[in-house]
Amino acid sequence: MEPTFRRSPLALAILGLLENGPLHPYGIQRLIKQWGKDQVVNVGQRTSLYRMIARLEEAGLIAVGDTERDERYPERTTYQLTNRGRTASREWLAEIVSTPRNEFPEFPAALSFLMLLTPEAATGLFVDRRERLTRRIAALDTELASEYEGAPVPRVVLVETEYQRAITDAELRWIDALLEDLRSGVLTWEAALRPSTNVPS
């Protein structure tokens, strides 16, 4: 494996899905969405998937398998997991699961500049976010209650959904407390860095 290869959620997902056998890129994308992994792995652009597959192949983590032929579709090249790729995926899993990492999400970055808004404007935006979080929790609860062939989906398959639900619920409770402080005046400020008439637009 090239020493500079940078792991990513998409790379880990590809290696994980290939554990079950060779797949072509379309099959990988379909399984990511079918299994709900698109909630934690960004596969919105198929070109990103193809680029990652090419990088994994160059790094020796996956290898070209057979070419599937079907009269209904163009030829499709399948990819299979290599021993090096299997080792890498286990190492990545161990490090990611055991070691918290600052992933620099957008929301905390926006909070760090909250003083640019008025308390009234911030309150309205937090109310909007609260509504979206409530809907998000309802969707996650539906997913957690899903069944496959009449039986509950094994918990281990939905453990990332459990995590998302817990994180979303914690954020919702934090926003509720923040809104209470904003409405009572416990938290207030004067909006900073107002636009100046001397600054070009």
Number of strands: 4
Q: H/E element string?
A: HHHEEHHHEEH
Assess the beta-strand content as a share of residues: 5-15%
The averaged pLDDT comes out at 89
Distance between the termini: 50 Å
User: Percentage of helical residues?
Assistant: 40-55%
How much is the radius of gyration in Å?
23 Å
| Strands side by side in the biggest sheet | 1-2
Largest sheet: 2 strands, antiparallel
Secondary-structure-derived class: mainly alpha
Task: Report the principal-axis shape.
Answer: elongated
The low-confidence runs, each spanning 5 or more residues with pLDDT under 50, are: none
Number of helical elements? 7
Tell me what you see in this structure.
This protein has 201 residues and is mainly alpha-helical. Helices cover 53% and strands 11% of the residues. It is built from 7 helices and 4 strands. The strands form 2 sheets. A two-stranded antiparallel ribbon has the order 1-2. A two-stranded antiparallel sheet has the order 3-4. Strand 1 and strand 2 (73-81) form a beta hairpin. Helix 6 packs antiparallel against helix 7 (159-184). The termini are far apart. The mean pLDDT is 89.
Task: Give a short summary of the structure.
By secondary structure, this protein is mainly alpha-helical. It is 53% helix and 11% strand. It has helices at 9-17, 25-34, 46-58, 83-98, 106-111, 119-144, 159-184, and strands spanning 62-70, 73-81, 147-148, 151-152.
Task: Show the helix and strand layout.
Elements: H1 9-17, H2 25-34, H3 46-58, E1 62-70, E2 73-81, H4 83-98, H5 106-111, H6 119-144, E3 147-148, E4 151-152, H7 159-184
Antiparallel strand pairs: 1-2, 3-4
